[in-house]
Fold these 2 entries.
Entry 1:
Amino acid sequence: MAKRQDYDYLIKLLLIGDSGVGKSCLLMRFAEDSFTSSFITTIGIDFKIKKVLIDGKWVKLQIWDTAGQERFRTITSAYYRGAMGILLVYDVTDEASFTNIRNWMKNIEQHASDNVVKVLVGNKSDMDESKRAVPYSRGQALADEFRMQFFETSAKANTNVDEVFQSVARDIMLRLKDTQPDAASSGGGGGGPNLRVGAARPKAASSKSGCC
Amino acid sequence: MDSEEDWPGSGPEADEEEEGEEGPARPRRRFSLGAVGKSLGRFADNIARSAAAASELLVDSELRSRSAALISEVAAKAGANVAKGLQQGARSAAAAPRTVQGVLQKLQARIEEQRLQALLLEQQDTPVDVQVAFQLYEDAPQELRSRLWMALLEHPELVHEYQVLAAELQQQRPQPVGSASPGEARNRPSPAAPSGAAREQQQQQEPQGAAAEGVDAEEAPPPPQQRLGWQDDEDVAAAEQQAVAEAAAQQPGPSSSSGDEGEPHASADPAHLSSSYAATWAAHRISPNNSGSGLGSPGPGHAQRAQQDEDGWQLVSDQAAAWKLQGTALLAAGMEQPPYSREREGFRNILMTAMMSVPWPLPTDYPLECRYATLLQISLGQEDIDDVISRDVHRTFPEHPLFAVQQGQQALFRVLKAYALHDLEASYCQGMAFVAGLLLFYAPEEPAFQLFCRLLSTSGPNLRRLYLPGLEGLKQELRKLEFLLERYLPNLSAHLTANGVVPVLYASQWLLTCYSCPFPVSFSCRIIDVMLQDNDDNVLLKTALALLASLEPDLLMQEGFEELLTSLKVTPVQWSSQRLRAVLNAAVASPLTPQDLADADEAVQQGFVGSLSRAPTFSAESSVETAAVAGDGTGTEPQTAGAGAAPQAAHPPSQPSGSAPAAAAAGAAAAAGAEGSGEDTVAADLAAQQQQIDDELFNMVMQLDLDWGAGEDAEESYSHTLHSAVQQGEGPRG
């Protein structure tokens, strides 16, 4: 189909984490580069698409956003398996959401494919230090423990948001390339820039990691 | 000389003095350094000018020197002042942003407050559709809904009476259609079939349709009791009602024909209204539910829009065609004219009386000993639930003026919290906040809580089951939707399934928020009207089917998971209020029978898993395709009706004779073709096939998940390679 011309890779990502940590805001910031405080609760599951240029390849990211409340896991966990990358999001001002990351990890172990790329995301890093409940070091330590990358982000201040998604996407791409370089590049050689959205700004906020 | 022309009216000295004083006065301009600098420049300018002027004026050398000294003295003094002022100005300028910011924030807050207040008032004045028993009040004042809900709350017996009456009337309902077989399990689609078929004819055969409309145009003005052939001996009552209605409804409004139609039905209402209310009321159109006018309301006159065939079924044509509301039984049902009955009118009058006796304005306080107040006093060990709920209240209708402010959010919080304490098992579930919010739009806090309890109650609509931990109830409901979709919209069902678009992805929100995500509040509230009166939540599934039926033509033209899902989510949000109204009309008058729902229930109980675990396969579609081919032969979509309404369509009851009999026959044949195997057999076959392939499919669903929105080889290979790829460890470039 003509669609295939639009991108070289299709990567499916999943956002999980407690209710209210800002998953939808992160996604909104990344996919539409906007932030609004008047969000509605995510009910069930939703997805957004964004095409980005990574290492000269057009990557279509299909990103799934999930409801955070515990009881929705029975619905959302069905979507773990299809995810190539999972962003575990907590709120740096909310200790419980950080503690719960371990539970989310269990969910991943149960439902996701074994080798899914994971990344730990501490959101709301723009908040005043006095409100911070989880220091950067603890986030980093947890990420190290589970051998995943760690980012502190702010959807509101647009800090590190692109980096997180790009990092996950790049990881996945590399793994794909390694096994099937042919298949990976067969998708139209960077064609179809006519259809892409914003894309390609790898340098944007790299200096700001772990801000505040 | 230029300086002469530039002279100010006053003398040079006076000028200087003024300027000299400007220094100390300068701090008043401290908000802007720029302004300070600017006035400084002007000051120096003036000094120079004054000096020049003086030297010209004072010819006397002595005077000249004195004045020069004076000028320089004053200038020096003023200069010092200026410097001082400038310093002060700089300091103030530094402090200014904070002060200004504070002031501005306060100002903004006040403006926002006023904006919200204005918005709230505006929204409260926006007319809404209110479903009162069998009747839709279009563009009615919102007060009507408040009164309705309060009346239903205070008079639960009315709900019961309504149910009994509705059941009786439903049995009588097919009678107008000659061939209908009352009491038969699947008889309700029957009225829809002729309507749908006839409407299709009309769409296809414009001249005849137009002719029919012309006839109808002449027939339209008389009271509906005469227009609608099957209506019985209500003339006296109708005349009375009409008299009252005409007296009250002084303003016919732009859509007088709609009004004509509505008045007799709604006549009793104005009599019960307070005078001010009646005035508002009269300004609004009232029209009976399920009628053609419901579909096309404002727009051209009813007579032009609706065609009435010989059965008395009113059909809406042109607008429906414009919307591509193609002839599915699900939508056609919304265009039927319901039979008139004394019982119905009687009930509506009783309900109206109850509504009008609701104290107004609604009292917002509540007794301290009531359950709501008691529940709210419990605080021990509630931190967790408090936390969970408070995370959501500001994310519920955040744009609406009622909930954009603390007050509204707190009321919402209290209602949800009280419920969580009232029902420890269901507690709080995301989605509830929207339903509670909808109630708070029209009811004060305490009654809203009671209404919420009623909506969730197992003895009522039982929304509770949708929210229980594990969401099994929701999943079941989604499977039921899947089942009904297959039965009523087999083409669409197959298409969506083939593309991996499963109800959990689009209908979870619908069901859990009573459609308020993403539909307008007014849409959702009419659904709540119906649920409160029906005392069940069947309208939720009926609405889903009506929406999907209305979307069908669009969706069938699209391919691909992402496109379909996006279209499903985005398109209906852009629909006009008329179209949304039409969809709800169709939902309220849905051909779905209790039997359909029971079938769906049973199928789900017996393990119907729907596409929750179904992958695109040809075998699953084959039987559906058979029906589709039969339908396609006619160029219409009778197969959708065919699945449900085949028996009736096979004997087209009384099609308007002479109007496109060929098309009618074709439609009937198509429907009959679909019926060929017997609908039960078809359903059984489907079920059997499904059972058979379920295991296989269960494995494939993993595939499906992996390939969301895929379908392209490249993507597949990515998915497939992911496992192995990832296993091979980190890439060298990582």
Entry 2:
Amino acid sequence: MAWRGQLSKNIKELRLLMCQSSPASSSARAFVEKNYKELKTLNPKLPILIRECSGVEPQLWARYDLGVEKGIKLEGMTEPQILKALEDLVKAGQSLKA
Amino acid sequence: MGLGLLASKAIRPTTRLINFQNPNNLFLRTIVSKPELRNPEPAAAQPEQPLVDLSPRTPVGGARVHFPNPDDAIEVFVDGFPVKIPKGFSVLQACEVAGVDIPRFCYHSRLSIAGNCRMCLVEVEKSPKPVASCAMPALPGMKIKTDTPVAKKAREGVMEFLLMNHPLDCPICDQGGECDLQDQSMAFGSDRGRFTEMKRSVVDKNLGPLVKTVMTRCIQCTRCVRFASEVAGVQDLGMLGRGSGEEIGTYVEKLMTSELSGNVIDICPVGALTSKPFAFKARNWELKNTETIDVTDAVGSNIRIDSRGPEVMRIVPRLNEDINEEWISDKTRFCYDGLKRQRLNDPMIRGPDGRFKPVNWREALSVVAEVAHQVKPEEIVGISGKLSDAESMIVLKDFLNRLGSNNVWGEGIGVNTNADLRSGYIMNTSIAGLEKADAFLLVGTQPRVEAAMVNARIRKTVTVNQAKVGYIGPATDFNYDNQHLGTGPQTLIDIAEGRHPFSKIISNAKHPVIIVGGGIFERKDQDAIFAAVETIAKQGNVVRSDWNGLNVLLLHAAQAAALDLGLVPQSENSLESAKFVYLMGADDTNLDKIPKDAFVVYQGHHGDKSVYRANVILPAAAFSEKEGIYENTEGCTQQTWPAVPTVGDSRDDWKIIRALSEVAEVRLPYDTIGGVRARLRTVAPNLVQIDEREPAALPSSLRPTFTQKMDPTPFGVAVENFYMTDAITRASKIMAQCSAMLLKK
């Protein structure tokens, strides 16, 4: 899980959008409750913007250098799958740099 | 009315004679307007007749009735219509539920009941006299009659008494056209008067630069006195004298020093208290009304801008029970003359001689774009101001991100600010929710100057619930009982560790509220302070599933949206090493930090502080001239609407940056306001839910605690001068007068 500490190297900003109550966002909420603390501790300078809004489908967005952004819809994903999606976004950032 | 009076005077000399001879001459001996009112018989208890329509009618103003306890509902009959009302309602309220608007002067739903104008008299069956409906509690089975000869005659009589000493100077009165007395005398008054004596006159009082008084017009409804003592919390106004010598005043000559004093203009039913800056400026029917949002503080008070042509003539409040009820602060109401002064109307470039030269947009943008490309991306810094709307902030952020810079932040947001969880920076209790609270801990916040409307809510809660207030911060003025616990973070630690007596009060409270001031975001040790606050919250059970009492009270209109969009400084000293600084309405940034050789672009609507340092000026629209999204301190998104056209060659903020991005060859992918809002939806979707308050469900306690040393420096004063906090209010002459006369030095 070394990639977690590398977040701030490849990503400039991480954004998680979700609904406060809908079942579609439940795994995204669980993801935040479980992983946010660790991610933030490992990457204290990286903004991880968690934005709650009713009726929004859960999404994960990463902003890379020069304003390039990538987003993934999280609907139907389980909490480990979201972690995997995040890892993919980090890797995508690595390949962007290379 | 005026004509009727003249007519009655003209015929008076003969009236008495004829009356004696011919008492039935209705035309000459009329006391009341209609023949059937001459000898009103109390409406007899009518035999049960089949009523045509007993379906419930629409309550006045679409009012909804809340039954605190459904068992306590009682039924009364208003003009034969049965209505269900909760116990404790007055007759007047029952009539309102039944859809009957009772005329009134002294009664105001947000103030205590005085019952002294007698205008709301109605007939109640089995009652020997008409009753003042505002002061009479409704009883089960009461039969209220609002449309009978007795009620009508009573109103006519009261009206005649009120007009006896009222000057009838409507043609030169600023209240004309929106005067309760004028309207009600048209609707309920007699068509002539019988008063020939001298009218009484009262000396005008000097209440300061905001409220103009013409005390002769006063009808002694005492609304202003009750407002001052109950809502504003100042004991300045009172009633002096008795009988015809009765007058409203301050006893000793004194100015009204409340931040809410302008509201007495709205509640005054006549023209006794009117707006001084608006005096003789316009008639209310010539004005165009635009319903919009205030931006002078983070409350987002709902306002109506009244404009005539290109000029904002006045600002009045709009009803919003969740935010400002029906009040606004003086800064909101009277800052509008700042919109006409010091405006930037042309793009300008500073020449080698240090003087600004007006240029066209094409030239200005190409100069800015060229410089932006000459510097390294990490030397680019963008700062958004206190009044920026969400659209312009996201466009600024996208633009600088595309140039490769991450140094974009909003004013009032310091380094180390954690904007990850919304619950960490909004007012989670909501402004209306504060009314439930029974204990407040104010940490480094002076709500009276930072957010006057929130302070009015706290005051309401303190008076209604007897809530305890503890305050940590520099000595300041409160208009309710409070305990000054200390000045610095040390007190916070004492409370967190349970050594302070106030920690008992918090843990014993059912609905405790902690409010942290927005000034905290400028402190380097904010994480440590938030950690201490979280500890107090945990011990006092402040955050639970049904109640979230942990709040941050922000300072500026743009702050909540800036935090939502992630406009947070990423590193220290980025401003000190900047070569290209983009100030978007940022006037309260420390300009000394900007290096001498940096190129500064100022985009904004006022020639305020930052213009002195700017190399290029790009004129933008003020809040009264554009459509912009603002989020208030409780996380409620609202929108401004353009009331007046833009000044000169200025443009909307987001359009300027969008155009600049094209010249700088990093074209942003949207070119309509709809496109910008679609972009907002992918960053902070709550910002496009207009007029909705999106609560934050994830608690701020999820944030990791960094071991940070707490700085023992006492909390500072976030707002030095209530009347002058931003570019608009600093340009306002009225606000300058207020600061000179009303601030306690």
